[in-house]
Each structure stands twice: as structure tokens, then as C-alpha cells.
Amino acid sequence: xxxxxxxxxxxxxxxxxxxxxxxxxxxxxxxxxxxxxxxxxxxxxxxxxxxxxxxxxxxxxxxxxxxxxxxxxxxxxxxxxxxxxxxxxxxxxxxxxxxxxxxxxxxxxxxxxxxxxxxxxxxxxxxxxxxxxxxxxxxxxxxxxxxxxxxxxxxxxxxxxxxxxxxxxxxxxxxxxxxxxxxxxxxxxxxxxxxxxxxxxxxxxxxxxxxxxxxxxxxxxxxxxxxxxxxxxxxxxxxxxxxxxxxxxxxxxxxxxxxx
Length: 260
Fold this sequence. Notes:
The protein has 260 residues and is of the alpha/beta class. The protein has 13 helices and nine strands. The strands form three sheets. It has a four-stranded parallel sheet with strand order 3-2-1-9, with helices on both faces. A three-stranded parallel sheet has the order 6-7-8. Strands 4-5 form a two-stranded parallel ribbon. Strand 4, helix 6 and strand 5 form a beta-alpha-beta unit. It starts with a helix and ends in a 6-residue tail after the last helix.
């Protein structure tokens, strides 16, 4: 099943890079990720022409696991936004699925209609900020649950506080303010997959990457992040080799259930 395969790929990677940089080429960024050992990336709808970029990525790198993010799964809100931004409207969940999105991510909850249509077909990662939202979205079929904005919610301390309340059953993906400094603390709190943007890279280094389109340097920086994630996961789960593990093996070792 493709859904299970794509979800496994995301979990093996441990990093969901938020592609939110119009200055960078989407395909070359994906190639830099592949060089760093990461096989997925979310294409945020906050960039210009996200559908076209997603379609190009799927066409040129068909085996790369390309997701779509920053989705507004609310018809009224989407209609209002698109009326004000008719030159570059936000796509709907259906449109990104039609464009080839291999998983779905949002900063907010997904609707019942989206779960009815896509649960079991595409991995679904909703944004949440409370234990009620976490449990509710999981009950509807979410495979992973995004904590957003993680930094403002309390970072690793928030995860440590809410995880016992959900009986350490749901895999939480902190996004927003994820850094190489706090990844070890998140891992100690039970996190093994992270959402992170280019802000994880030093500002001066990132400026060089974007100004000079230095994708070799980008790959080098991404590799450092990937290695840190792998090292912290190995410390917390020494008997689990994430990069080769099956979904079932990850579930047994971590105690998390993925709604597959």
C-alpha cells in the first residue's frame, strides 16, 4: 500500500523539511535532501504557485515522497483568502491530492470530509495545540499529529506534559522553532519525527545558500541535521534502527500507533 510506504519513509527520515523558500529551486532542494539521506519534503502552500511546483517535483523525482502543507481545510476561509488573492490562490486539499501530494499537512485540524475521503489513502498530519485536538484528530484517522507552533506552545516541555495524557500512544511531530539545540530534548521527551524549516540552518550559511544557490552546501547542512536526529533516536531507542525499520517495528519499539 502506497500510503503505508510513504508514511514509513517519513518516519525513517525523522525530518519533514518545510519547503517555504521561493528563492530555492524545489527539485534541487529535494536532490540535496536525498544526498543528506532524507527522502521526503513538504511543499508548503505559502510559496508562490505551490501546485505547479509540486507537480514539477513529482514529475522530475517521482520516487521522492513529496507532501503538501499549510493547507486551509475550511471552505469558507479558503474562499475568503482566494477572493483576496486571486492572482495566486491557495489550493484545496483535493487540488494538492490531484497534483500528486503523497501526504497532507496542515497548521490546523483537518475536516471530517478530508478524513472520509483521504484517510487510509494518504498519510494525514494535522496541526494541533491541545490534548483534545490531538486525541480528536487521531480518532478521526490522523497518522501523525503535528504540534504547532511548537516553540510557542512550550517546546519539549509541552510534549513531556501532554504525552502522558495521551498515554504515549500518538506520534507527535513538533513543528515551529525546531533547532539542532532542542532536538535532543525533544528526543528525550519521546519525539522521533520533526517538522523543520530552513531556519534550522545558521542564518549566514543559509544566506550563502540562497544567494549563491549552493545546493552542495545545503546538502551538507541538511546532513548534519539528519545525523543529529539519527544519533538522538539511537540514544533513546538503541535497539531500533529507524532508517531500515518497518512501520510495525517502529510501532512496537516506541509504543506509538499510526492508524494504518
